[in-house]
Amino acid sequence: MSGSTVVVWDEALLGYDMGDHPLDPVRVELTIALARELGILDRAGVRVVAPKPADDAALTRVHRPDYVAAVRAAPDDPFFTGWGLNTPDNPIFDGMHEASALVCGATLAAAEAVWRGEAKRAVNVAGGLHHAMPARAAGFCVYNDPAVAIARLLDLGAERVGYVDIDVHHGDGVQAAFYGDPRVLTVSLHETPLTLFPGTGFPEETGGEGAEGTSVNVALPPGTADPGWLRAFHAVVPSVLRAFRPQVLVTQCGADSHRLDPLADLRLSVDGQRAAHLALRELAEELCEGRWVATGGGGYALVEVVPRTWTHLLATATGDPIAPATLTPLEWRALAKRRRPEREVPLRMTDDADVSYLPWQPGSEPDAVDRAIVATRKAVFPLHGLDPHDPRD
């Protein structure tokens, strides 16, 4: 098992397709194609595993049975309303239940492989649908695969699961699923809910009764770039994870924090996102004996950003990271141009960004990022016995 990685993939995962919609499955197709061309899926110790759909027993650990029944029925009724479905964000599409259950099944397979010791790490880039609620579709998400997988880990005996969400949007559905469960720590870094969907994820959201401190939210100002984002990550995430001592780390690695993303206003680079993946892997190594389950998530710069960012994620999970200056293969460029001829195809795996950052220090006149850091540390650090004003905590 040592060093092995499961990549859960089958072309059937491209069936999660809402039509003319920002969540275009071409981003996943191009990710897998880029990873293949760069040899990442052929590395020693990598197994590509096809998923099976999650069954109703797995889905209803998070979702209400009547909602699952509604998802099944909706495609047969063009006038269907309710449950958050048949909206611009969540249009109905043929095979919606089957496609959504397969995404959940893929993340379940990743979680099971890691927990059972069949692999050290596992990745489902088609997953990360973190906005779905128990009885409502939301934010392009029908079923909440990270929450379904975390529930399975708990059922398999996990006593402490750490979840870190680096999507530009708050991981509201996962937080809601476990808000009162002290066995699950949810950490989300996102653009402030004052300016972006879903309007939740304030620092004061720290967990329900009996689970105080297990929801951690870093709400960053619009325009935050690599240095500020990485400063915020390192000022909060390692400390709360170390205090919580998770046995397994589950991450949602949405790529929509990038400066080119059309749906949000953070300003990260592919290089900054790559640095975040490396930091998450290091934390899994330090705290969880390497056990790491990674999913994709948002990301709407379909050609320019998502395939590169998630290929870096796959490389980080399967072994050595890809050198930033690596060229994108000619075959992949041709495929990307065929799939989306209107898009600019990147030539290298880097944005040539400097990902150095100044560690957070208290006491100086804070900028907006520092105010966000301080707000989170004040809200949640004392609940873990940590000093919000001590940079060593």
From TrEMBL:
Pathway it works in: Ketone degradation; acetoin degradation
Entry-linked Pfam families: Hist_deacetyl
Keyword set, alphabetical order: Acetoin catabolism
CDD domains: HDAC_AcuC_like
Domain Histone deacetylase: 21-315
Family note: Belongs to the histone deacetylase family.
Name used for this protein in its record: Acetoin utilization protein AcuC
